């Protein structure tokens, strides 16, 4: 970090005679981007924090089981982020242009939800077959993280990005971080590594629910405007039923 700061200082010193920096404009840009920076920092440190909690409270074997299971479907996250990023400039120009985003989410849901439900049932066999008998515990952690997809498809933050409401993004990320930390510290004592996974799922869900409510109250944009609610409700019922059925089988 020190090296990068020194390089930046040298560059600024060299361009100073030719470029005049507008202090007021730079200050405004800093105030605008600072909440966004905090939002990204909090989001990127949550995985590290969960791993640190597991390493601090449990032994190395439990940490290994957790790291192997603590993963989402990577392509689903990439696809949802792509939808969100592509519609930020569109919604910035016209906030009413949400029909196409809703349709894309619907098409993606018909792919990722059935696949996620299938993986809920297959994960014990896959982890046991690939890694070994003891890694069934990793499959349970993985199944908890699969549930995050139910919150990922909620994209109220796309509207917040489009509205340039970086403060709201920062506040909700901070709330998620605190809830995740508290729940992980509480649940790891009673549930072990699956408690840390459950805390992450609950904290992320609360973040998205608060964002949905905030967008509805401040901008008068209901969830049904950017999410196919009926299809979502059906998939959620199927996913929750499948999750508990697998958990009962593994714990029975």
Describe the structure in your own words.
It is a single chain. The chain is mostly helical and about 250 residues long. It has eleven helices and no strands. The protein has helices at about 1-15, 25-55, 60-70, 75-95, 100-130, 135-145, 150, 155-160, 165-190, 195-220, 230-250. Helix 2 (about 25-55) packs antiparallel against helix 10 (about 195-220), helix 4 (about 75-95) packs antiparallel against helix 5 (about 100-130) and helix 8 packs across helix 10 (about 195-220). The longest helix has about 35 residues, at about 25-55.
Describe this structure in a few short sentences.
This protein is mainly alpha-helical. The protein has eleven helices and no strands.
Structural class: mainly alpha
Specify the overall morphology.
Answer: globular
Query: Low-confidence stretches at least 5 residues in length (pLDDT < 50)?
Result: none
Q: How widely separated are the two ends?
A: 52 Å
Q: Name the average pLDDT.
A: 86
Q: What percent of the residues sit in helical stretches (DSSP H or I)?
A: over 70%
What's the gyration radius in Å? 21 Å
With helices defined by DSSP (H or I, 4 residues minimum), what is the helix count?
11
Element order: H for helix, E for strand: HHHHHHHHHHH
Number of strands: 0
Strand content: under 5%
Major β-sheet, in short?
none
């Amino acid at each position: 970090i020190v090296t990068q700061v020194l390089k930046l200082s040298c560059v600024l010193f060299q361009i100073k005679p030719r470029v005049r920096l507008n202090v007021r404009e730079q200050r405004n840009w800093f105030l605008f981007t600072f909440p966004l920076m905090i939002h990204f920092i909090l989001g990127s440190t949550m995985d590290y924090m969960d791993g640190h909690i597991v390493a601090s409270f449990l032994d190395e074997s439990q940490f290994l089981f957790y790291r192997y299971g603590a993963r989402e479907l990577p392509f689903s996250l990439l696809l949802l982020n792509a939808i969100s990023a592509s519609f930020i400039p569109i919604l910035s120009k016209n906030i009413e242009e949400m029909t196409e985003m809703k349709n894309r989410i619907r098409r993606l849901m018909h792919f990722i939800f059935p696949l996620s439900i299938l993986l809920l049932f297959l994960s014990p066999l896959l982890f046991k077959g690939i890694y070994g008998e003891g890694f069934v515990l990793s499959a349970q952690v993985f199944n908890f993280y699969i549930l995050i997809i139910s919150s990922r498809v909620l994209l109220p933050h796309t509207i917040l990005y489009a509205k340039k409401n970086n403060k709201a993004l920062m506040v909700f990320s901070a709330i998620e971080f605190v809830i995740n930390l508290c729940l992980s510290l509480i649940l790891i004592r009673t549930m072990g590594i699956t408690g840390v996974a459950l805390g992450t799922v609950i904290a992320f869900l609360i973040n998205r629910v608060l964002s949905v409510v905030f967008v509805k109250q401040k901008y008068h944009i209901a969830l049904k405007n950017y999410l196919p609610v009926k299809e979502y409700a059906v998939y959620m019922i199927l996913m929750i039923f499948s999750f508990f059925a697998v958990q009962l089988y593994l714990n029975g």
